Amino acid sequence: MAIPTKTTEGDIEIYDILERKLINICCRKIAIFISIISYFLTPYSTVRAASFDCQMAVSNIEKLICANQKLSNLDDQLHSAYKKP
User: Fold this and answer.
1) Based on the domain organization, do 53 and 34 belong to the same domain?
2) Is 69 among the domain residues?
3) What is the pLDDT along the chain (85 residues), one digit of tens a residue?
4) Which pTM was predicted?
5) Which domain holds residue 83?
6) Total of domains in the chain
7) Same domain, yes or no, for 37 and 73?
8) Is 57 in the same domain as 76?
9) How would DSSP label each residue in 17-80?
10) Angle made by CA atoms 33, 37, 39, in degrees to the nearest 5
């Protein structure tokens, strides 16, 4: 079987289709990879400080407390101390 020396319009169309499919596959794999990385790098949204709901945090201080487990524990202790009669 001889290797063709000229490319025809049909060959170019096939190459274009294959190129688009390859790009589509690569984009899907990249999207899946980014989704998996994002899942593991995103802090859990279930963290809750005793004195406020972290999902409703607005100020920078509240966001900082919610993002840091040690600060959240300290907030719990402070809330318990002030809550005692």
Assistant:
1) no
2) yes
3) 556 566 677 777 888 888 888 888 888 888 888 777 766 666 555 556 667 888 888 888 888 888 888 888 888 888 888 777 6
4) 0.41
5) 45-85
6) 2
7) no
8) yes
9) HHHHHHHHHHHHHHHHHHHHHHHHHSPPTT--BTTB-GGG--SHHHHHHHH-HHHHHHHHHHHH
10) 115
